[in-house]
Amino acid sequence: MQTHIVPVGFDYDRLIAPLVRDRLDVDRVVLLEGAVGSEANVEYSRNLAAKLEKDYRNLLGAATERFVVEDVYDYDEAFEQAFELINAELDREDDASVWVNISAMPRTVSFAFATAAHSIMVEREEDRQRIHTYYTVPEKYLETELAEELHRGIDLLSDLQGAVDDPELAERVDERLDAAEELLSEFDERGTTIGAKEFDGKHILELPVASFSNVKPFEELILFTLGEHGEFESVSELAQELARELGEEYTDSFRSKVIYNVDRLGPGGKGYIEQEEHGKSYRTRLSRIGELWVRAHSDD
């Protein structure tokens, strides 16, 4: 059974053409459509998803299912959704393979889905050959062609300006010419996008691309404890909390065990924990990838 997970975005050909042209045996397609942006963008994405749903069914005979990505700029949410979705599709059948198309949607979603797929490959070594991440290169981009046509349209409107006798039509020509010139000037100066949007007081969305590593049971307990309680002022404080949760006596041996495992999970190891020195102690908390691990495994 071959399942393709396809975040939709604003592309059509790159999401279906390679499957048709390469004659892949696609049994199931999961479409993800964004719910953030202007009303026009959301509507466009929704209509495109509906068209893809119909064509996957008619051209490939594939069953389709549609999901919504509530915030295409929330990396953590997209990662969690991808992690759950890929695992669920792998577990459908013993021979199920999952193909993740990262050609469309904002890069936050593409990075999240690619990183989630790779993380699952690491955790499920026996299923590594059943997980695939792919990208489709477009034959051409339409932005430059649209700009060239806009140039020609401006030339035509300029020629019409002095030749139109109807005052109302002349006013419309002037308005369209001004708007086209302004838009083309923006395109020539800035490219295809404008500005840098702010999220949570910042203009940079950091994308942690480190993949998961296999985690042992005691390491899992440490990560979940940090996820539940947040930062600990020291490893000793963390060890005391772990001893309470396990109903064990807090001894030097137990504390040493915690220190050893925290080191394995830290920057020099798996990278799930970060520490900050203060005095003779180390504040201990989850790193960004550690937070993602806890988030992805909290329902296991």
TrEMBL record:
<protein>
    <submittedName>
        <fullName>DUF6293 family protein</fullName>
    </submittedName>
</protein>
<dbReference type="Pfam" id="PF24989">
    <property type="entry name" value="DUF7776"/>
</dbReference>
<dbReference type="InterPro" id="IPR046260">
    <property type="entry name" value="HFX_2341-like_N"/>
</dbReference>
<dbReference type="InterPro" id="IPR056678">
    <property type="entry name" value="DUF7776"/>
</dbReference>
<feature type="domain" description="DUF7776">
    <location>
        <begin position="142"/>
        <end position="213"/>
    </location>
</feature>
<dbReference type="Pfam" id="PF19810">
    <property type="entry name" value="HFX_2341_N"/>
</dbReference>
<feature type="domain" description="HFX-2341-like N-terminal">
    <location>
        <begin position="2"/>
        <end position="141"/>
    </location>
</feature>
